[in-house]
TrEMBL record:
<dbReference type="InterPro" id="IPR036554">
    <property type="entry name" value="GHMP_kinase_C_sf"/>
</dbReference>
<dbReference type="Pfam" id="PF08544">
    <property type="entry name" value="GHMP_kinases_C"/>
</dbReference>
<dbReference type="InterPro" id="IPR020568">
    <property type="entry name" value="Ribosomal_Su5_D2-typ_SF"/>
</dbReference>
<dbReference type="InterPro" id="IPR006206">
    <property type="entry name" value="Mevalonate/galactokinase"/>
</dbReference>
<dbReference type="InterPro" id="IPR013750">
    <property type="entry name" value="GHMP_kinase_C_dom"/>
</dbReference>
<dbReference type="GO" id="GO:0005829">
    <property type="term" value="C:cytosol"/>
</dbReference>
<dbReference type="InterPro" id="IPR006203">
    <property type="entry name" value="GHMP_knse_ATP-bd_CS"/>
</dbReference>
<dbReference type="InterPro" id="IPR019539">
    <property type="entry name" value="GalKase_N"/>
</dbReference>
<dbReference type="InterPro" id="IPR019741">
    <property type="entry name" value="Galactokinase_CS"/>
</dbReference>
<dbReference type="GO" id="GO:0006012">
    <property type="term" value="P:galactose metabolic process"/>
</dbReference>
<feature type="domain" description="GHMP kinase C-terminal">
    <location>
        <begin position="307"/>
        <end position="378"/>
    </location>
</feature>
<feature type="domain" description="GHMP kinase N-terminal">
    <location>
        <begin position="115"/>
        <end position="197"/>
    </location>
</feature>
<keyword id="KW-0547">Nucleotide-binding</keyword>
<dbReference type="GO" id="GO:0004335">
    <property type="term" value="F:galactokinase activity"/>
</dbReference>
<keyword id="KW-0479">Metal-binding</keyword>
<keyword id="KW-0067">ATP-binding</keyword>
<dbReference type="InterPro" id="IPR014721">
    <property type="entry name" value="Ribsml_uS5_D2-typ_fold_subgr"/>
</dbReference>
């Protein structure tokens, strides 16, 4: 975030609340390099934080209220005031639109603080003022929602002087999304946003929650990752995502395992006869995807990275979603196929699916050609023009100067 936008956020805070903020914090969106829908199956994921981020300006106040304002008016909501006595999931329905992501993060952090024996964040007569600003594209599969939650929990944990690890903040932010907003998502997004490092992806075992950075040295290799926002919007809270989760649970139950993480590629053949065809297809994606994550990590940690092989794994992941998991869409398939045809090492849909963003691993010199080819393929089919921009593995949540 450059100096200009820091100043703009501070000014917006002054305008909204007539005072200076105590500080500014940022938390990034993320792209998942590979490992889709494996998170809630106790499996492996490999996301990276991107430079696009949610920023919050926050002040602790002597007013018993949580006051939230946004620099972007999203779905008609601009400013909200919440009575701390009504800050629980039972009252989340009274909180409009996007401000639920902020309120949910405050609630979840406060619930953790109280359960860990710390003072309540919203003790009698105290509150917080928050202004939110974000340049993470909304609903594009780059996790604008987790960016907000992670910015808020990072800010309030610091302001309240709570000693809480990043790993715990991940779970707190996830709880906000699961229990307050009502979206049944795993820990992938919040982990990337809170634990991401510049120049690296985050290899995360969603069962043990152990993670480690894996080098993703694109610049040295003369590579870019292009994000292709297809402009097809998804909606996590309804429909497809829940059905896919249910199919995975049915698959695990049918195979008598705790989670699909416990099934290996070698066991798939035997599993086929024991499951309904559609459930088997979902299971096959998860099982092969876990292996592709492990293969990608091994490749990226090798002394000499074969980028063509990394690309092949990405494209195979996409084919698996398209053919077995059923969460792709025509725009995505066109984006991936045309990017690869124009010179990308590989490409895949990133994020939950049914639209959103594709990523393409592209030699820097071929970016213009790949961009033009994808745009042309979209135009030919009468699709809405995509938005295509480079994304780079960036630092996770942090306090901003200024
Ligand atoms: P994703 O996380 O993939 O972008 P979600 O549906 O999970 O999509 O979250 C998008 C929601 O996050 C939006 O509908 C809105 O409520 C909230 N949001 C994202 N960015 C902003 C913003 N700049 N200002 C206000 N709300 C935002
Ligand atoms: Mg989201």
């Amino acid at each position: 975030m450059n100096h200009e936008s820091t100043a703009a956020l501070t000014n917006a805070f002054r305008e909204a609340f007539g005072a200076d903020p105590d500080g500014l914090w940022a938390a990034p969106g993320r792209a998942n390099l590979i490992g889709e829908h494996t998170d809630y199956n106790d499996g492996f994921v490999l996301p990276f934080a991107i430079a696009h981020s949610a920023r919050v300006a926050v002040r602790r106040t002597r007013t018993a209220a949580l006051r939230i304002a946004g620099r972007q008016e999203v779905a008609g909501v601009r400013a909200v005031e919440i009575d701390p006595a009504r800050l629980s999931p039972a009252h989340a329905g009274e909180v409009p639109g996007w401000s639920r992501y902020v309120a949910g993060a405050v609630w979840a952090l406060n619930a953790w603080a109280e359960s860990a024996g710390h003072a309540s964040l919203l003790a009698a007569g105290e509150g917080y003022d928050v202004v939110l600003d974000s340049d993470v594209p909304i609903g594009a599969g780059l996790s604008s929602s987790a960016a907000i939650e992670c910015a808020v929990v990072t800010a309030l944990a610091e302001l309240a002087g709570l000693e809480v690890s990043r790993e715990t903040l991940v779970l707190i932010a996830q709880r906000a999304e699961n229990e307050y907003v009502g979206a049944p998502t795993g820990i992938l997004d919040q982990s990337a946003s809170l634990l991401g490092q510049s120049g690296a992806a985050l290899f995360l075992d969603c069962r043990s929650r152990a993670s480690r950075p894996v080098p993703l040295a694109l610049e040295e290799a003369g590579l870019e990752i292009l994000a292709i926002d297809t402009k097809v919007s998804h909606a996590h809270e309804s429909g497809g995502y829940g059905q896919l989760r249910a199919a995975c649970e049915a698959g695990a139950a049918g195979l008598g395992v705790q989670a699909l993480r416990d099934v290996s590629v070698g066991e798939l053949e035997a599993a086929q006869g024991r499951l309904a065809p559609e459930v088997f297809a979902r299971v096959k994606h998860i099982v092969t995807e876990n292996q592709r994550v492990l293969d990608t990590v091994a490749e990226l940690e090798a002394e000499r990275v074969e980028w063509a092989e990394v690309g092949r794994l990405l494209t195979a992941s996409h084919a698996s979603m398209r053919d077995d998991f059923g969460n792709s869409c025509p725009e995505m398939d066109v984006a991936v196929a045309s990017a690869v045809r124009a010179g990308a090492h590989g490409a895949r849909m990133t994020g939950g699916g049914f639209g959103g963003t594709a990523i393409a691993l592209v030699p820097a010199g071929a970016c213009a050609e790949v961009t033009a080819a994808v745009e042309q393929a979209f135009a030919q089919r009468g699709f809405t023009a995509p938005s295509i921009f480079p994304i780079r593995p960036s630092v996770g949540a942090r306090r901003l100067a200024g």
